[in-house]
């Protein structure tokens, strides 16, 4: 498998994160996979946003879980963009998707969409939450999953195996060759986030990773020069 470039919340380095504009830009720039984040609105919609609260990325305030989709739609998510729902992203781009479950409760709603729209082959479900990955595998047999971790040790390999996740998505600042070798011995693939500089890309290549998560389109273009 070739070295993957994964667009972080679309391409949040150049577009408003987790918006349709950002996802379309990531696809246009040639990113292999588009990553997004999911929460549930008050009325159960699969809302695409990183934070549990809308304050940082919109002109509104308050938790997503306390607002209906209609209320969330009134907010400006940057450059006039509206907060999308997962189904809209599926329709807006053709690229493979990484859907990160931020709220464990979103696993069941996501499972329903994956089954109804036959998206199991296109969408990889990722999460920091072991229980969310275990739940989605039960709800959607055969779905591909990845365990995400920021502060971790060698035991992250055991955690991934325990929930049947064949991919680790790890903070590059803590990544070591020892951990990569342990993951390889367990037949796990490894990608690193967030890789936004040429130096970080060289580190990722030197560690023999399977890909990187990036905010910047130039990292996609630089990959061919770091093989």
Automatic annotation (TrEMBL):
Coiled-coil region list: none
A Pfam family recorded for this sequence: GDPD
Gene3D superfamilies found in the cross-reference section: Phosphatidylinositol (PI) phosphodiesterase (3.20.20.190)
Annotated signal sequence range: none
UniProt xrefs under InterPro entries: GP_PDE_dom, PLC-like_Pdiesterase_TIM-brl
Domain GP-PDE, first and last residues per copy: 3-224
Protein name (Swiss-Prot/TrEMBL): Glycerophosphodiester phosphodiesterase family protein
Organism: Streptomyces catenulae
């Amino acid at each position: 498998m070739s070295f993957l470039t994964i667009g972080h919340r679309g391409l949040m380095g150049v577009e408003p994160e987790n918006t349709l504009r950002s996802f379309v830009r990531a696809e246009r720039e040639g990113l292999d996979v588009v990553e997004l984040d999911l929460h549930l609105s008050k009325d159960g919609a699969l809302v695409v946003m990183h934070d549990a609260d809308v304050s940082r990325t919109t002109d509104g305030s308050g938790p997503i879980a306390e607002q209906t989709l209609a209320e969330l739609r009134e907010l400006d998510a940057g450059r006039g963009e509206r907060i999308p729902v997962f189904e809209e992203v599926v329709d807006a781009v053709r690229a493979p998707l990484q859907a990160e479950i931020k709220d464990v409760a979103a696993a069941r709603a996501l499972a329903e969409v994956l089954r109804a729209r036959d998206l199991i082959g296109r969408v990889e479900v990722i999460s920091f939450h072991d229980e969310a990955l275990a739940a989605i595998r039960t709800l959607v047999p055969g779905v591909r999953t990845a365990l995400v971790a920021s502060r971790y040790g060698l035991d992250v390999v055991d955690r991934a195996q325990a929930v049947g996740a064949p991919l680790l998505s790890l903070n590059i600042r803590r990544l070591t060759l020892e951990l990569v070798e342990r993951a390889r011995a367990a037949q796990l693939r490894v990608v690193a986030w967030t890789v936004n500089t040429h130096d970080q890309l060289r580190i990722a290549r030197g560690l023999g990773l399977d890909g990187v998560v990036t905010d910047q389109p130039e990292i996609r273009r630089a990959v061919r020069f770091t093989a």
